[in-house]
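Supplementary Methods, section 5.1.

A reviewer requested that the exact input to the structure prediction be made available. We therefore reproduce it here, unchanged from the version used in the analyses.
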Amino acid sequence: MNATPSATRATPAVSAAPAALLAVYSRVGPRFVRGDGAELIAEDGARFLDFTAGLAVNALGYNHRVVRETMEQALSTGLIHVSNLYCTEPGERLAEELVARSFADRVFLCNSGAEANEAAFKFARKWSGKTEIVAFSGSFHGRLFATLAATDRPEYRKPFEPLVPSIRIVPREDWAAVDHAVSASRTAAVIVEPVQGEGGVRPVDPEWLGFVRELCDSRGVAVIFDEVQCGLGRTGTLFAYEQTGIVPDLLTLAKPLAGGLPMGAVLLRDAIATALKPGDHATTFGGGPLVSSVALAVVQTIADPDFLAQVRSKGEWLGARLAALAARRPRVREARGRGLMWGLELTEPAAPFVTAARERGLLILTAGTNVLRLVPPLVITPEELERGTVVLEAVLA
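The structure derived from this sequence is encoded token-by-token as follows.
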């Protein structure tokens, strides 16, 4: 078995940024021109095994038959966009599918995870008549003004302050802190990621989540689960909340929802949905026919019990392999995760290892300063997982 993907070669650490694009990203590596399965292919033909999945977006990898054929069929209708002033079938069918497979009674379709979380905040405020949102340390909920206020990244927040008021961040898994923070008179909602992504790939303690659920029930506060990164099969079940035993009032989705096309969603109970009326919120592009057609096919593909069983099996193998790696490599402090969402916490900054892995044909991410994040496509093969972990271990040596 080869230790590195075929036809790979060392690549420049930073690409020349296109002059016309706003430089808010430091783009790295080569220019990619094609994708196939779990590999990205550069313009010079070099192939890279992708353990990033486009920031946990490409659950079905690249050039997947379901996505390609659904897009072709949807395009043949000529309906890419008609706005939400009119009825179209794909968005309605997608909403029905998400309701049938979850706790929810209603679905709001939008364009991204940040938009979904912003909408969830508005819905909770309208339902409750209260204004405060409580989030937790290590959280990442987006970079719009309300979601940024709920994101525990001071370096992201400071240049844009003042942010939306009445949003506070308290210590994660601190029972006394959340008891003190959640107020029956002020708090509209609590938002939490069942598995934190950008905060270091940290599964949240289900027992503490149960305490939060009971506390919110007793004080008339909504519980929002942010599953933008950890939802839709990533942890081995269709929704991450299924593994906690805790059911939220609202749940936000995005990243993998439409197979790489931009889409987000808020799933919510009737008790909250009935507080909303026409005109309370809107989206120009959300739930359009093309993206909704693809999203429906993606959800149905991922929700297949055999597909999810394979994710769990591959995740168990990867978790065991990473735990063994951590035991052998002193610079690895801990391996943690669920399904195909894993983090390796290091004793030193993680960024140089991302560069070293890319130079060997493996694409990985960071999750904070000292954590390597692995979120490969859910369709990755066992052989590709083996290949990637061989490279990863060599880099960490």
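The radius of gyration is 21 Å. These observations are discussed further in the main text.
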